[in-house]
Amino acid sequence: MGFGREWQQRPHNFSFTSEVRYWFKYESGKTFQLDFLGDDDVWVFINRQLAVDLGGLHPPSAGSVTLDTATAAKLGALKSGNVYEVAVFQAERQTTASSYKLTLTGFNAAATTCTSTCGDGVVVANEECDNGKDNSDTAYGGCTTKCKWGPFCGDGIVNGPEECDAGKKNGTQYGSDGCTFACTQPHFCGDGHLDADRGEECDFGDKNGVPSSETGQPTCTTDCRLLIL
Fold first, then answer.
1. Helix and strand totals (H; E) in the chain
2. Torsional sign, CA 191, 192, 198, 201
3. Are 12 and 94 in contact (CB under 8 A)?
4. pLDDT by residue (tens digit) across 84-133?
5. What is the distance between the alpha carbons of residues 92 and 46, in angstroms, rounded to a whole number?
6. How far apart are CA 45 and CA 49, in angstroms?
């Protein structure tokens, strides 16, 4: 037991693995060089294709790959301008020493900058919307060419086919005041439309409250009730 505890506490540089992933933009006509040195297992994949195989137990061994036009064709037909991944896997299995070195030459290590592109159909960053080629500055309910929402029901401005627009206060279902969710005027007693589901018995519009003797029809009160004499 004492030997076991001592072994657990003693620093060592074996029996470990590592994994490195690197994204790069491939450009035809440009040469990329990857050089490796390692004992025991080292595998390098480019575009998920095996490019270097130093597998097995062995003393420090070197491996390299030159990513030129010929090599690019063998690694899944890399296309200029596309982004691909380099993945390096390594395992140190010996118990006396470890050797590992990775050198990348010709790769662009500059930090990338993420910016939005209005019109690409993807909503990112400061864009409110993006319908791609369908962006329009005149379409009602659409997205403008600046990727901002154009006129729509609920923006608080009466436009397009709207009869009203109270913005967030839209939702009135019945009554002379307010606006529906569809930006139309809600029905109310006195609009000339019989809303029996709202308790109206009649609705003659501006003739409500006028005696039947003057209209030649039953009398409808101002609260849309039939007046029975």
1. 3, 9
2. positive
3. no
4. 888 988 888 777 767 777 787 877 666 767 788 999 999 988 899 999 99
5. 22
6. 5
Residues of the chain with pLDDT > 70: what percent?
90
Place of tokens 């491939």: 26
Q: Which residues contact 208 (CB under 8 A, 6 or more apart)?
A: 189, 190, 202, 220, 221, 222, 224
Residue 176 region by backbone torsions, left for phi larger than 0, else alpha for psi between -120 and 50, else beta: alpha
Tell me how far apart the alpha carbons of residues 129 and 18 are, in angstroms, rounded to a whole number.
Answer: 42
Task: Supply the pTM of this predicted model.
Answer: 0.43
Q: Are 175 and 186 in contact (CB under 8 A)?
A: yes
Dist. CA 217–CA 211, nearest whole Å: 8
State how far the Cα of 165 lies from the Cα of 85, in Å rounded to an integer: 52
Backbone angles phi, psi at 8, to 5 degrees: -65, -30
